[in-house]
Amino acid sequence: MKYIIIGLGNFGASLAIKLTSQGNEVIGIDNNMTKVDAYKEKITHTICMDSTDEFTVSGLPLNETDVVIVAIGEDKGANVMTTALFKNLQVKRLISRAIDPLHEKVLTAIGVHEIVHPEEETAERWAKKLCMANVVDSFELSDNYSIIEISIPKKYVGKTILEIQLRKNYNILALTTIKKTEVKSVVGKSRNEDKVQGVASPDTILEENDILVIYGENKDLKRFTNQ
């Protein structure tokens, strides 16, 4: 896949390096030449440019890019202007970084539905979300092995874990399932609550809206989620 990441601070650079190492084509952009030079050997392409300049930005290969991530963190104004510019250019998928709740409200008003909170989420988790379909969350155990939570793919709804042959076909283990249930408070308000169903068995039936928690080598997890 092809990515453009704007802002090569700690989060943006880490994400760009991680995605590049996984075999993706990444264009890393920053207006600081020192940062661009520092990462040119670790990211597929690096460019020094002003991401708020519409003329310059429109020269990027946007039609061939799958995901644009605005990772600017130091300058909220530049973040908002850059996000609005890429939104107007109608890129395929736009993700932006929010610094605080007010900033998030502004991004939402612009029409951005995928927002990153680097203080709470790591670059490794976002790399998995971007590279693997249906990933809800992930926990990296080492460079090669992870535990991930995925939404149940439609073709597996109604089937048992035994029937989908995770271990035999993909060399991964099903650990548990999580069900979203509606809980009412004493004042009658409803909220969704995640309930872990215990250790998964071969007879566990995968239901619509369930979350499946699986463990395995990253390459096998990616093969399963992107099939």
Task: Give the topology, please.
Elements: E1 2-6, H1 10-21, E2 25-30, H2 33-39, E3 45-48, H3 54-57, E4 67-70, H4 76-88, E5 94-97, H5 101-110, E6 114-116, H6 123-131, E7 135-140, E8 145-151, H7 161-164, H8 166-170, E9 173-184, E10 190-199, E11 211-217, H9 218-225
Parallel strand pairs: 1-2, 1-4, 2-3, 4-5, 5-6
Antiparallel strand pairs: 7-8, 8-11, 9-10, 9-11
Helix pairs in contact: 1-6, 4-5
Pfam families: TrkA_C (PF02080), TrkA_N (PF02254)
Protein name: Potassium transporter TrkA
Organism: Polaribacter gangjinensis
First-last Cα distance: 15 Å
Shape: globular
Q: What is the count of distinct domains?
A: 2
Strand content: 25-35%
The strands making up the biggest β-sheet line up spatially as 3-2-1-4-5-6
> Mind telling me which CATH architecture of the largest domain this is?
3-Layer(aba) Sandwich
What is the name of the CATH superfamily of the largest domain?
A: NAD(P)-binding Rossmann-like Domain
Helix/strand order, N-terminal first? EHEHEHEHEHEHEEHHEEEH
Q: Helicity, in percent?
A: 25-40%
Continuous helix count: 9
Radius of gyration: 20 Å
Mean pLDDT: 83
Biggest β-sheet: count, sense, barrel?
6 strands, parallel
- For the record, the CATH class of the largest domain is Alpha Beta
Task: Outline the low-pLDDT stretches.
Answer: none
The CATH topology of the largest domain is Rossmann fold
Helix/strand/pairing class, anyone? alpha/beta
Task: Give a count of the beta strands, DSSP E runs of length 2 or more.
Answer: 11
Domain RCK N-terminal: 1-116
GO biological process, one term: potassium ion transport
Domain RCK C-terminal: 134-227
Protein name: Potassium transporter TrkA
